[in-house]
Design goal:
The chain has seven helices and twelve strands. By secondary structure, the chain is an alpha/beta fold. Strands 1, 3, 4, 5, 6, 7, 8, 9, 10 and 11 form a ten-stranded mixed sheet that branches. The protein has a two-stranded antiparallel ribbon with strand order 2-12. Helix 4 crosses helix 5 and helix 6 runs parallel beside helix 7. The longest helix is centred in the middle third of the chain and has 18 residues.
Amino acid sequence: ADGNKVPGMKIFSCMEVNDTNPLNNICFTLKSSGKPLVDAVILFSSNINYNAETGRVYVYNNENNQAIFDMREKYLKPLKERGIKVILSILGNHDRSGVANLSDEAARDFAQECKAVCDAYDLDGVFLDDEYSSYETPVPPGFVAPSYAACSRLYYELKRAMPDRWTVAYGYGRTQYLTEIDGHQCGEYLDYALADYGSTVNNNMYPGLPLSGMAIRSSEYARGYIYTSQSYLGSMREQGYGAYMIFAMDPNRSNVNTQINSMSNIAKYLFDDELEVDYNFYKKDWR
């Protein structure tokens, strides 16, 4: 299925899969077009972990991520069948490894690790979040000092390893300023940059990335940071920004009406459409 909508804005749903069933993203559609409101689901989150025995970093899936991947026919295939992309999320996990301290060689190696996961579970891209890593001083062997450049290198290697899949940045930590790598501006190796809620993104942070690849604002549905008024959304659309992110959508929470009102505004002011809601929401049912 083709989930593309006029005027081309992409809605990213960054979903806390420890708590929430990703199938809830198919409960929200646009009335006139019949297309899903959400264009891409970020499965938040798998981790980058360090293996002390091998000295290498690897992709770690907790029991929730792994259950979803193991049962992708149930939890991910219905999203894909509606044209929704499914994105691997990589987050630090309280050890010395992170998305911003890999050597060039380790970045190439980890990009291949991410590719293997994407290949195995038919995923459509990689989202990096520079949080919860315990970066050590002095810098341990095999790593470099955390930097924007090291994070940029990882994005560059991810795009080299998977040119047809999306690379997605979160405007926070060291993923919020990406640098030139081997003569390539970040616009050549990054597809989308998503603002942290309450913050913004711009061309100074992501040189060479067109406005169509930027979500200048985002919403956080667990804490109620919404930012989907007509003025916010209307100005984004008029200026040519091409994405918006909702974080921690879960229609089984008590603030479900706030979430639906926000998504209704997104449908109305970004797509000139009306939100249709299937109230048969999905519970977390894998354990």
